[in-house]
């Protein structure tokens, strides 16, 4: 009950200014471990839709498979209307700016085909490769763009580690190991079971630690 009632906050700036006391009348604390559980309890009665429903924490998605574009658009528009009515009943508002549509197929002639899906007379943005739960999902699910972004991120972080690994100065081996695992391996291995069979995996190095020019030991041996 303390999370849901009598909550307030004050905004303080770096130069010492502060706002007046403001009270929160809805929502749950951001980042709290209990917030996802409360969200699931609140949304336990999601209405049935023709589309399949997927969710993780507060990220919801629906997916519909049909043989024609018109059938896909008709089904998605109908289901989004059901969700919009449900959210109004729950005194919530859909964030249309964060809600997008996308298509997944192998027909190259229709590669740039955009869906016309609307909610409350507002058309949702269509993205060719939206990101869901931190993974870039391209049309053919080859994960090419995802791996290009991961490579860029890993390379930038490896350069940072290299700056800490001087021969005459620099961080200790323990600090380098922890930093590499936290900064490099966390980015390189995120959702690896999803994209590991992609033909574009060669865009990534065989071992993130190989780029650092050092050895990082772990419980199973060592990464060269």
From TrEMBL:
One Pfam family recorded for the sequence: RVT_1
Location of the region described as Disordered in the Swiss-Prot/TrEMBL record: 205-224
Superkingdom, natural source: Eukaryota
Biased composition range(s): Polar residues: 212-224
Domain Reverse transcriptase per the UniProt entry, residue ranges: 1-137
PROSITE patterns hit by this protein: RT_POL
Name of the featured protein: Reverse transcriptase domain-containing protein
Lineage of the species this protein comes from: Eukaryota, Metazoa, Chordata, Craniata, Vertebrata
């Amino acid at each position: 009950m303390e999370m849901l009632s009598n909550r307030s906050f004050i905004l303080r700036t770096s130069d010492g200014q502060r706002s007046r006391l403001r009270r929160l009348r809805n929502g749950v604390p951001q980042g709290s471990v209990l917030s996802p559980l409360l969200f699931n309890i609140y949304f336990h009665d999601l209405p049935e839709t023709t589309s399949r429903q997927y969710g993780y924490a507060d990220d919801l998605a629906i997916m519909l498979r049909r043989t024609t574009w018109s059938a896909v658009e008709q089904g998605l528009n109908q289901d989004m209307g059901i969700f919009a009515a449900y959210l109004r009943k729950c005194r919530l508002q859909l964030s249309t700016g964060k809600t997008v549509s996308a298509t997944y197929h192998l027909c190259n002639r229709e590669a740039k085909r955009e869906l016309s899906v609307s909610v409350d007379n507002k058309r949702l943005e269509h993205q060719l490769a939206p990101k869901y739960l931190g993974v870039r999902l391209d049309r053919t699910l080859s994960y090419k763009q995802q791996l290009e972004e991961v490579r860029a991120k890993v390379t930038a972080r490896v350069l940072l580690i290299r700056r800490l690994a001087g021969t005459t100065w620099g961080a200790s081996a323990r600090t380098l190991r922890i930093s590499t695992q936290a900064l490099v391996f966390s980015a390189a291995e995120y959702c690896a079971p999803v994209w590991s069979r992609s033909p574009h995996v060669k865009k990534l190095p065989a071992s993130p630690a190989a780029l650092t020019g050092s050895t990082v030991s772990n419980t199973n041996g060592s990464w060269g």
